[in-house]
What we know:
Layout lengths: L6 E5 L4 H12 L3 E6 L2 H10 L7 E5 L5 H15 L4 E4 L14 H21 L1 H7 L2 E6 L11 H21 L4 E8 L5 H6 L3 H10 L8 H12 L10 E4 L7
Helix pairs in contact: 1-9, 4-6
Amino acid sequence: MILNGKTALITGGSEGIGAAVVRRFAKEGANVWFGDINQTAGEELEKELSHYRSRLNFITLDVTQVSDWELAIEKIVLQNGKLDILVNNAGIYQRKPIEDTTEEEWDRMLEVNAKGPFIGSKVCFNALKASGNASIVNLSSTAGLKASLSVHYGASKGALRLMTKSIANRFAKNGIRCNSVHPGPIDTKMGHQAVPDDQLQERLYDRIPLGRFGTPNEVANAILFLASDESSFITGSELVVDGGATSK
């Protein structure tokens, strides 16, 4: 169990990739705290993983609210003394071209996908520093690497990509690494929002060398690597999980 004894906080942890990370981290021995605004889904995942109950905690966490972050880290430090791993996974998606995107939609996208990880990394800094050997993993996207239909989504994920590098440089002296993971098309509810019809999905398959969508577990495996000591000399890097799509 490569996370044995480590304490982790995963945002957006109730569904999709986040839930896969929660399951994998718990299996690997971590003290897992996972936050989400979807309390019902969070409590259902807690029940599913009840055999890990002694080291699994769900908390209501809106990543855009400083007070939610402060309450979460207060609980974590009180119970576990420090934080070893922060996974900024919470995010939203909207399939819409720039000419149809409102200012309010732009603001909301950046608030959740970029400002949320900014607040979290800032609020969690002291608890991560106390670890002496901590890791932040930010969930960006291949849309943060190349052009996409949804300009506001791509902008938010591109911002997170560069924020990751700045944090990596700033926090390195405190024993904190920071890397980003860039999923391509993944078989989740959000993934199918991006590819809403079968015809578009078939065209997309033709552009993916491996010829399929990825699974949440495959992304969770990448996150696990960057969160663990197996990646101890990796910081400021990008790990792309897209079946080879961006290689073409």
